[in-house]
Design brief:
Two copies of one chain form a homodimer. By secondary structure, chain A is of the alpha/beta class. The first copy, chain A, is built from seven helices and five strands; from the N terminus they run βαβαβαβααβαα.
C-alpha cells in the first residue's frame, strides 16, 4: 500500500514517515519548498528521504513568501525564548500552511493511487498552530472525499497523524526504537548562515526539551 | 470589505469577480501559475485584473506539473469534441486543483484580513469536476474555520460561488449587464502556439454554446 508522506526534514515528519514504513506502507515523500528561511531544511529532507528508502521523493515549489503573513516566510524576526505555555499562536504560524500542504499531498496521492497521507503534526509539544489539531485533520479527510475524482468513485482518504498525542520525548523514543538517525534532521526556524540551530526558537526549545526528557543527547549538537 | 478572488483569465472567474465588485467588495485577485499549457491564460488574467481595477493582483507559482495526473499539466493530449453529457470526469481534471487554489486563497485572505473568497465554479455547464460541487465548497468553508488563526479567534470564512447554478449563457448575460469585455478573456485548454482557441476542447465548446444561447458573438472570435 502506498502512502504520501509530508517530509520537512524535521524530527517529527521523519518519525511519522518511519512509523508508516514500519506499518508496511511504500513511501512517496513530498517536500514543499515554500520559501523557508534556510535551505538547510531542504537538504535535511533529502537526507531523511534517502535514509527512509522512499519509493519517490517529490519536491514541489510553492512560493508562500508572496503571500507572507509569517516570520517563517518574511523578513520579520523569529521569536526567541518565547513562553510556550502562554497559549497564543506565534508569528511563526504560516497562514493555511497545512491546508496547502495536505492539498498538494492529496493531489499527488490521487495521481499515484495512494489513499493514505501521513503528516507529523503534534498537538501536545507544539506551538499552538490551529492546523495541527485533530478536528482540522478530520475536516480535511471529509473534504478529500468530496474534492477528488477518486472520492467520487468511492475512495476514502485517510490522513494519518501517528504523533498527534505524543510528547516530544515519546516521539524521540519511538524513533530511536526504529533506529532513526536524528543527526540527519533539522528543526531550527532561524539557523545561522552555516545552518547551525539558534537554540532559542520554539522549534529548538521543544527539540531540546524532548531529548532531555528522553535522556539521550541530540546528535545534531554533538561533534 | 475585502475579498480574495481566484482569477484564471477565463470568462467565469472574470464574471464572478465582477459580481463581487458590484457587491462592493474590494478585490484582491489571486492567479495561480500552476504550469498551465499556455502562457496566454496568465496574460488574460493580468488584463482582466486591470479591467476590474483590483486593489492587488498576486501571482503565486505552484508547479503542478511535478504532480501531474492531468492533460492540463502534462503532455497528454487534451480531449477534443468530447461528449459532455456522458457524465464522466475527463482527463483535464487536475487532482485536488480547487482544494489547492482555495487553500492559497485562504492563506492570503488571512494575511490581508479578508473573510470572503470568491471562486467562479459552476456546476451546470461544466466538465463534471468534483471540486466544483456545492458540497465541496461547504466542506472547505468548514475546514477554513478550523485551519486558521483567524478561525480560532472566531472568524467565519465564506466562499462565494456566484455562478454555481447559472448556465453559461446566463453567466455571459450577467457579465454583459456589468459591461465586461470578454475579449480580454481566454478559455481554451489547448490553444495554438500563437494563443488561438482550438474550438474543440470542453472549455471552447461550453463557451461557444454560451455565446450562442446568449445570442451575442464571442469577441475573442471576432476581427
Amino acid at each position: 500500500m502506498r502512502a504520501v508522506v509530508l517530509l520537512s526534514g524535521g524530527l517529527d515528519s521523519y518519525t511519522a514517515a518511519a512509523i508508516a514504513k514500519a506499518q508496511r506502507f511504500t513511501l512517496f515523500a513530498l517536500t514543499v519548498l515554500y520559501g523557508q528561511r534556510h535551505v538547510r531544511e531542504v537538504e535535511a529532507a533529502r537526507a531523511v528521504a534517502r535514509a527512509l528508502g522512499v519509493e519517490r521523493h517529490l519536491e514541489v515549489e510553492v512560493d508562500l513568501r508572496a503571500i507572507g503573513g509569517s516570520s517563517l516566510t518574511s523578513d520579520t524576526a523569529v521569536p526567541r525564548d518565547r513562553d510556550l505555555e502562554a497559549g497564543d499562536i506565534p508569528s511563526t504560524y504560516v497562514p493555511a500552511r497545512n491546508t496547502i500542504f495536505l492539498s498538494l499531498a492529496l493531489g499527488w496521492a490521487e495521481v499515484v493511487g495512494a489513499r493514505d497521507i501521513v503528516i507529523g503534526v503534534n498537538a501536545l509539544d507544539y506551538s499552538g498552530y490551529p492546523d495541527c489539531r485533530p478536528e482540522f485533520i478530520a475536516a480535511f479527510e471529509r473534504l478529500a472525499e468530496l474534492a477528488t475524482k477518486a472520492g467520487v468513485e468511492g475512495a476514502r482518504f485517510r490522513v494519518h497523524t501517528p504523533l498527534l498525542t505524543l510528547g516530544k520525548a515519546e516521539i524521540i523514543r519511538r524513533g530511536l526504537e526504529l533506529n532513526l538517525d536524528y543527526g540527519l534532521t533539522h528543526s531550527c526556524y532561524d539557523p545561522s548562515p552555516s545552518g547551525q540551530p539558534c537554540g532559542a526558537c520554539d522549534s529548538c526549545v521543544l527539540r531540546a526539551k524532548g531529548f532531555r526528557e528522553a535522556g539521550v543527547p541530540d546528535p545534531v549538537l554533538l561533534g
